[in-house]
Specification:
38% strand, alpha+beta, 2 domains, outer membrane lipoprotein receptor (LolB), chain A, Metallo-beta-lactamase, Chain A, elongated, 14-stranded mixed sheet, 24% helix
Length: 518
């Protein structure tokens, strides 16, 4: 209508004063939109007690929540994937005056294929422009140059409506009105703003002043936050006791309980806990380039990044295992074989390929294996998963079944089944002559030296799987010298594998106590 007004006035009067008047109308309309935004923010700030926060400068948020995600199934009949459910209890303390943050979380697995290690803890601290990660399992701390004021709590602030209203109040000059909409039958003012390259839209009840919904868009990815069960305390603070976080129309987080308080810490935040030591520097082995590693005579590990394949020379051909890859990988199983041929200056076929377990990321390379002409060796339990990956039935000509303890290639290769939390059947390859153990999803390290802390997800369950494998090796009397993984280019020695197995965390109750003691 405003554009029409300009055109009509200009055509009739041909007078610049008419254009000036039209611009004034546009200007006043824009000002009105800003006034609507400021009015909505002012009302929300009063309801949420933002003036109280601004004066006292200290805020503490404690909450319990569930995290829903897709994970890999533990049993072949479930298919490759299944539901994983974690319960978080987390605490965020913000001192706006001192510019410090403390974020603590306990993470307990409730549903999923995990072993008896079901709890990990997280402790991240930020003070005077410096970040610190604290590991209460190993009782160490590690400075983090990548941690910033905004990243300490892994975006937890976005799910706390009190903090969103404070952000709006602090940036009200940059907020514009997006009109109104209805949520649950109530009129809501729509507010838009951008901060740190994240586009945000808030929906504030026109009558109540409460934030009902927030959407954020970053790098094309939309996240939605719905705020429920608003409550308040005698300090004048208001907050939503529940929040549902969703992406792609699927819930990912559900905050079931939340308490927000003004608090003055008994002790000031410190970056280094008493009695804790500095952890070793984590130097990652990225294997950015395609690599060929002769682990032992006639045994080759070929791969890049996160995926590696074993090739065992059995004379006129190879036996292979480990076809792990993702849909966008370019260094696939056949390319790994080509790389090995190029490295050795030979051209030797693969006669047999061993399938270890049913997860789809370990079956994606099978089409290349089949095209190459190698016979697929598998447990009977994995037949449906393999056929689904190949999109064709197996035949006696292109496949054969394996069983626990079976010997292959004139006793040059042995396979044995090690069921664990990760998969109900998971074959391990053992080479008696070279004393090499090859396994998928059972152990490994991406570090130049040492190992990842057991107090992390999913590493802690990997340590459980390694212990299960070690028990089976001891039961069979196997004394391996080399431990090879499909996910890690680093090959572990016997002593390194022993050190990995011996790493452990204290009881869950001890971890929790350490987490909440400053």
């Amino acid at each position: 209508m405003r554009i029409y007004f300009i055109r009509k006035t200009w055509s009739k009067a041909h007078d610049c004063r008419a254009l000036f008047c039209a611009l004034v109308v546009l200007q006043s309309g824009s000002a009105y939109a800003d006034e609507a935004a400021i009015e909505a923010i002012t009302r929300a700030a009063e309801v949420y007690g933002i003036d109280t926060i601004s004066k006292l400068k200290q805020l503490k948020v404690e909450e319990s929540l569930y995290r829903y995600m897709q994970g890999q199934s533990g049993h072949v009949e479930e298919g490759s994937h299944s539901l994983v459910l974690h319960r978080y209890k987390q605490q965020l303390e913000i001192n706006f005056a001192a510019k410090s943050k403390s974020f603590k979380r306990s993470d307990e697995n409730l549903i999923g294929n995990y072993g008896y290690h079901s709890l990990v803890t997280l402790d991240r601290r930020y003070l005077n422009g410096k970040g610190m990660k604290v590991d209460h399992c190993m009782q160490t701390y590690q400075p983090s140059t990548r941690m910033s004021w905004d990243s300490v709590a892994f975006n937890m602030e976005q799910s706390v409506d009190t903090l969103i209203i404070k952000e709006l109040s602090d940036n009200r000059a940059d907020v514009s009105s997006g009109g109104v909409t209805y949520i649950q039958g109530d009129v809501h003012t729509v507010l838009n703003w951008t901060i740190n390259q994240v586009r945000k839209t808030a929906y504030i009840g026109s009558a109540s002043g409460l934030l009902s919904r927030l959407t954020t868009k970053e790098k094309g990815k939309m996240t939605r936050y719905d705020f429920l069960g608003h409550t308040h305390n005698n300090q004048g603070l208001t907050w939503a006791s529940q929040t549902i976080v969703s992406q792609e129309h699927k819930p990912t987080l559900h905050v079931t309980e939340r308490v927000v308080t003004q608090s003055t810490p008994t002790f000031p935040l410190v970056l280094k806990p008493d009695g804790y030591k500095l952890s070793d520097n984590d130097t990652f082995l990225e294997f950015a380039q395609e690599s060929v590693n002769e682990v032992a005579k006639g045994v080759f590990l070929v791969g890049q990044g996160w995926g590696f394949t074993l090739f065992v020379d059995i004379g006129t051909s190879y036996i292979s295992a480990g076809s792990w890859q993702m849909p966008n990988d370019t260094f696939t199983w056949q390319q790994r074989l080509n790389k090995l041929d190029q490295h050795l200056g030979t051209h030797k076929p693969v006669s047999q390929f061993i399938v270890t377990h049913h997860h789809d990321d370990h079956l994606m390379g099978l089409n290349e294996v089949s095209t190459h002409g190698a016979k697929i060796l598998l447990m009977a339990e994995h037949q449906k998963a393999v056929e689904a990956s190949l999109e064709q039935p197996l035949t006696p000509k292109n496949s054969a079944f394996l069983h626990d303890g079976m010997m292959l290639a004139n006793n040059q290769v042995q396979v044995f089944d090690v069921p664990s939390s990760h998969a109900d059947h998971n074959l391990v390859v053992y080479l008696p002559k070279q004393k090499v153990v090859f396994a998928e999803d059972m152990f490994g390290s991406s570090l130049e030296t040492g190992f990842h802390s057991p107090n992390s997800w999913p590493s802690r369950d990997v340590y459980y799987r390694a212990q299960v494998l070690n028990e089976r090796l001891n039961e069979l009397g196997i004394q391996a010298e080399h431990f090879v993984s499909s996910h890690h280019g680093r090959v572990l020695s016997k002593d390194e594998f022993k050190a990995l197995v011996n790493l452990s965390c204290p009881e869950d109750s001890v971890l929790i106590k350490r987490l909440y003691v400053r």
